[in-house]
Structure formats: C-alpha cells, structure tokens
C-alpha cells in the first residue's frame, strides 16, 4: 500500500509541484490549502506524513500552530511533520513547534526526495 502524504500549501503552483514530485516517488497525495480541512483529513484518513507550509494565506491557522497541534495530540504526534517554507526563521520555528524536519524554499528536488525518504526510514 502506498504511503499517504498530506500536503498543506496555499500556493496552487507549489502544491501541484510538490504533489507531482511525491506521486513520481510512489506516494499517494492529499493536497489541501487550509488547516481546517487538514484536521478533518487527519481524523478520517491514515496519514503517514505531513508536508506543511508555514504561511498559509486565508487559512484557519498558520503552519507553526498547526504543527504544534499535531505534535500535541497523542493519536497524531507519531506522524512526521516536515515544514516547507522560505521563512528565514524556519530553523527556530521547527524547534518551537516540534516539526521533524524542514525543507527551505526554493528547494532542490534531490534534497526534497532525500528528506522524505529519511523521514520514512525513521518512521518505519
């Protein structure tokens, strides 16, 4: 069964690009632009990883608080969360919200794939 990745990204071009890369690597992708819908998916679906943008325009909450929410829930905290952002404070934000890793935008595709694979090796 394919690993299922939840992508939360408000920029449709970036969301599509990330989804294509993930699908090329054999993952099943659920792509959303809002944390409200993402909470529902986390409750309904078996999610293996979350790729999360920090700055979500028009979303219920930003990526940092949504990451902290995931990591505070006993039934969700095992899910690796990777922050994907151009935010210059991403390293500090990763520590504060408990994210498992980060990918800085713009990103190199090989680096992106290596980060994903390393997280699945850790989670296995």
* Rg, Å, rounded: 13 Å
Strand percentage: 15-25%
Low-pLDDT stretches are none
Mean pLDDT: 91
Q: What is the 3D form?
A: globular
What is the H-and-E element order? EHEHEHEHEH
Distance between the termini: 14 Å
- The count of helical stretches stands at 5
Structural class: alpha/beta
Which sequence of strands runs across the widest sheet? Answer: 2-1-3-4-5
Major β-sheet profile: 5 strands, parallel
* Amount of helix: 40-55%
The strand count comes to 5
Structure, described:
The protein has a five-stranded parallel β-sheet, with helices on both faces. The chain has five helices and five strands. The protein is an alpha/beta fold and 124 residues long. The two termini are 14 Å apart. The longest helix has 15 residues, at 109-123.
Please write out the topology.
Elements: E1 4-8, H1 12-24, E2 28-32, H2 35-44, E3 49-53, H3 63-72, E4 81-85, H4 90-97, E5 101-104, H5 109-123
The gist of it:
The protein has 5 helices and 5 strands; from the N terminus they run βαβαβαβαβα.
Identify the notable features of this structure and list them briefly.
5-stranded parallel β-sheet, single chain, 5 helices, globular, alpha/beta, 124 residues
């Amino acid at each position: 069964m394919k690993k299922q990745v939840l992508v939360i990204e408000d920029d449709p071009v970036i969301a599509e690009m990330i989804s294509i890369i993930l699908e090329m690597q054999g993952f099943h992708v659920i792509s959303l632009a809002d944390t409200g819908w993402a909470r529902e998916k986390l409750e309904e679906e078996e999610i293996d990883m979350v790729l999360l943008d920090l700055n979500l325009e028009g979303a219920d909450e930003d990526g940092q608080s949504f990451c902290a929410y995931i990591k505070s829930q006993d039934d969700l905290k095992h899910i690796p969360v990777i922050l994907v952002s151009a935010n210059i404070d991403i390293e500090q934000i990763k520590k504060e919200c408990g994210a498992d890793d980060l990918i800085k935008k713009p990103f190199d595709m090989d680096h992106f794939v290596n980060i994903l694979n390393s997280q699945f090796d850790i989670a296995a």
